[in-house]
Amino acid sequence: MNIYLIVFIYLFLNYASQNEDGSEVERTSRFSTTLPGVAHVPFLTPAVVQERRPLIVAVMSAAASGTSKAAHGDVAAKRKKGPGALATAYLVIYNVVMTAGWLVIAVGLVRAYLARGSYHGLYYSIEKPLKFFQTGAVLEILHCAVGIVPSSVVLTGFQVMSRVFLTWAVTHSVKEVQSEDSVLLFVTAWTVTEIIRYSFYTFSLLNHLPYLIKWARYTFFIVLYPMGVTGELLTIYAALPYVQKTGLYSVTLPNKYNFSFDYYTFLILIMISYIPLFPQLYFHMIRQRKKVLGHIEDYGKVE
Amino acid sequence: MKTGGKRKPAKKTKKAVVFFEVEILDAKTKDKLCFLDKVEPNATIGEIKSMFHKSHPQWYPARQSIRLDPKGKSLKDEDVLQHLPVGTTATFYFRDLGAQISWVTVFLTEYTGPLVIYLLFYFRVPFIYPPKYDFTTSKHWVVHLACMCHSFHYVKRLLETLFVHRFSHGTMPLRNIFKNCTYYWGFAAWMAYYINHPLYTPPIYGEQQIRIALIIFLFCQIGNFSIHIALRNLRPPGSKTRKIPYPTKNPFTWIFLLVSCPNYTYELGSWLGFTLMTQCLPVAFFTLVGFIQMTVWAKGKHRSYLKEFRDYPPLRSPILPFIL
């Protein structure tokens, strides 16, 4: 994980002193092009990397604003819409940290497998980082609410909360399912997906998205999405008998608030909700894939 | 009749009429959908919509959005052609608003549901509660009171829809009826299930709590009705004028001094009263969700009042005096 961060910081600094075409940047006030409004690309839309001038240049100039040289750049930067220099720097750090975190989980899974020699009970070896980094994704809802990421708060909220629900309200709460293989199934799917997704965002923000990452982002889901859904459904199904037996998170009548809640029925309704939701999301991603990756193939044909 | 170039400009006796030509393009594809020539300069957008409807019968006027700019605001039906910033050949852009349904229809449907559904639970119709309770009645008198209040509330709403409200818009998108009915009918069923349940627990503070709750409820029902009447009287029949509402002789309208949308304030009060009366958490949820929605509407209305009227009273808040 340390090596990964060092590589990233190296790339970060590298871009600070280079233009898109590789020539050295002039550290003068002639930053007439304002801050690139590179948006933190949301999950369901293709990368919208538009500006030519590396964002990092503006970040560095903002940081070095003590000198009069960079002053003009700052003024020009403020007029542009979209996430500011500070917000973009924060988002880069956020995405790097999340990529690193999920890599830790991936490495943890591999090491545990090699140590034990079997697939069973790997959840326990990555339980803490999984909870930490998956819960940390709640910040993404805040990013949308504040406006530094142009996604819908509702959509992001829904996606993040469904993950958090599975992590805490099912896997953590019903201890008996933690040794199930279905847990490994969705944890693996999530891990690979998140590593690709967060690196995708990181590279997009840095204005240098390798085609490989873009391709992976829009291709791996074909297998990972059904894999994750299967793992999730099997885990919820495995939890049902224990929830019913212990009355977990359930409230019965009579009580002074005249309210009741049956967690067992609630979990069944959740499982049923996958039926309309999953195909919609899946086919949306397939359409996005055609849009994003389809162009590249067309250009290839023209040559 | 067209003006000849030789005629002297006569200001008073202007017999010559310059007809307009109107072309309507699709706002998204910019395709020419319709061309109307010999349009009277004093024709309204409403009349143009009727003419457009003749050539495209599937787009009745209520679902047409006509604008000057593809991404601009919709023009109003009352706008007159010659007063718009267009040349004698006017280009308008059309957007299909989708299937429309009248506000009155939506209101009647969404309010009749809760009225009927609550009563189904109140009379303990079979298949809701365990069979031994079918068609029994609750032994708690607050349950009967709650049924009366809930039913009164929705009967009042239905009557207001039919006889009191004057709607600015005739229609809304069709999908709204499904959304709205799910909301009202769903919550009504959820609340009614618990209030009329055989294992219902009456309020902790008993008669005292119920009495206070009933007073609050009735006070706010009268208040809400007074506001609806006051708003109706601002607007002559058949018109769509907008005026600043002011307090009238009716003390229940004096709240206009402090609030832009007191109808929502009173509505919140009614449901708080009902929550207190039934001491039921689902009712509290319903009150909360309704409050959030009404606050959004009140803020929007307050903003449009401020935009439209320079002399709008500065002391007023959207929904809660001084607070929100």
Automatic annotation (TrEMBL), chain A:
Protein family according to the UniProt entry: Belongs to the very long-chain fatty acids dehydratase HACD family.
Reactions it catalyzes: a very-long-chain (3R)-3-hydroxyacyl-CoA = a very-long-chain (2E)-enoyl-CoA + H2O; (3R)-hydroxyhexadecanoyl-CoA = (2E)-hexadecenoyl-CoA + H2O
Signal sequence, start to end: 1-18
InterPro entries, alphabetized: Tyr_Pase-like_PTPLA
GO cellular component, one term: endoplasmic reticulum membrane
Record has Protein transport as a keyword: no
Organism listed in the record: Astatotilapia calliptera
Protein name, per record: Very-long-chain (3R)-3-hydroxyacyl-CoA dehydratase
Pathway named in the protein's UniProt entry: Lipid metabolism; fatty acid biosynthesis
Gene of this entry: HACD2
MF terms in GO: very-long-chain (3R)-3-hydroxyacyl-CoA dehydratase activity
UniProtKB/TrEMBL annotation, chain B:
The keyword Heme appears for this protein: no
Locations listed in the record: Endoplasmic reticulum membrane
Keyword vocabulary terms for this entry: Acetylation, Endoplasmic reticulum, Fatty acid biosynthesis, Fatty acid metabolism, Lipid biosynthesis, Lipid metabolism, Membrane, NADP, Oxidoreductase, Phosphoprotein, Transmembrane, Transmembrane helix
E.C. designation(s): 1.3.1.93
Bilayer-crossing regions: 101-121, 180-200, 212-231, 252-274, 280-298
Catalytic activity line of the entry: (2E,7Z,10Z,13Z,16Z)-docosapentaenoyl-CoA + NADPH + H(+) = (7Z,10Z,13Z,16Z)-docosatetraenoyl-CoA + NADP(+); (2E,7Z,10Z,13Z,16Z,19Z)-docosahexaenoyl-CoA + NADPH + H(+) = (7Z,10Z,13Z,16Z,19Z)-docosapentaenoyl-CoA + NADP(+); a very-long-chain 2,3-saturated fatty acyl-CoA + NADP(+) = a very-long-chain (2E)-enoyl-CoA + NADPH + H(+); octadecanoyl-CoA + NADP(+) = (2E)-octadecenoyl-CoA + NADPH + H(+)
SUPFAM superfamilies xrefs: Ubiquitin-like
Residues annotated as domain 3-oxo-5-alpha-steroid 4-dehydrogenase C-terminal: 171-324
Superkingdom per UniProt: Eukaryota
GO biological process: very long-chain fatty acid biosynthetic process
InterPro entries: 3-oxo-5_a-steroid_4-DH_C (IPR001104), SRD5A/TECR (IPR039357), TECR-like_N (IPR049127), Ubiquitin-like_domsf (IPR029071)
GO molecular function term, any single one: very-long-chain enoyl-CoA reductase activity
GO terms for cellular component: endoplasmic reticulum membrane
Domain TECR-like N-terminal: 20-96
Pathway membership, UniProt: Sphingolipid metabolism; Lipid metabolism; fatty acid biosynthesis; Lipid metabolism; sphingolipid metabolism
Membrane topology value: Multi-pass membrane protein
Leading EC class: oxidoreductase
Record PROSITE patterns: S5A_REDUCTASE (PS50244)
Function: Involved in both the production of very long-chain fatty acids for sphingolipid synthesis and the degradation of the sphingosine moiety in sphingolipids through the sphingosine 1-phosphate metabolic pathway. Catalyzes the last of the four reactions of the long-chain fatty acids elongation cycle. This endoplasmic reticulum-bound enzymatic process, allows the addition of 2 carbons to the chain of long- and very long-chain fatty acids/VLCFAs per cycle.
Cited PANTHER family: 3-OXO-5-ALPHA-STEROID 4-DEHYDROGENASE, VERY-LONG-CHAIN ENOYL-COA REDUCTASE
Similarity comment: Belongs to the steroid 5-alpha reductase family.
Protein name: Very-long-chain enoyl-CoA reductase
Lineage: Eukaryota, Metazoa, Chordata, Craniata, Vertebrata
